[in-house]
């Protein structure tokens, strides 16, 4: 998904070392949910948002179609985009179970 859960690193320990139980508490600093993602669109100098921008090049000769050239300059990335609802992070080691 490419999203981020939080800026803190997630440290989890299972509390088991060999055969006996450790008395160390389990640290949970992150959530399994993803709230933001990196945007895939760009802003141009007019403030329009799109995946790609093109400009029309007029033909030099009569009877030839106009060509479209991609604009690659003066574009700024969209940045972080908030998701409409949280999603589960793909790398979070958790088992989901629902008893029906």
UniProtKB/TrEMBL annotation:
InterPro entries hit by this protein: FUS1
Pfam family, one: TUSC2
One annotated GO biological process: regulation of mitochondrial membrane potential
Cellular component, GO, one term: mitochondrion
UniProt name for this protein: Tumor suppressor candidate 2
The species this protein was found in: Cherax quadricarinatus
Higher taxonomy: Eukaryota, Metazoa, Ecdysozoa, Arthropoda, Crustacea
């Amino acid at each position: 998904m490419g999203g981020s859960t939080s800026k803190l690193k997630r440290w989890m320990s299972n509390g088991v070392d060999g055969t006996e139980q450790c008395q160390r508490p389990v640290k949970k600093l992150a959530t399994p949910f993803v709230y933001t993602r990196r945007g895939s669109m760009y802003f141009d100098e007019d403030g329009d948002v799109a995946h790609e921008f093109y400009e029309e090049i007029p033909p030099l000769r009569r009877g030839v179609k106009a060509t479209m050239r991609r604009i690659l300059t003066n574009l700024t990335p969209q940045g972080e985009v908030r998701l409409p609802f949280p999603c589960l992070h793909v790398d979070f080691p958790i088992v989901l179970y629902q008893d029906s």
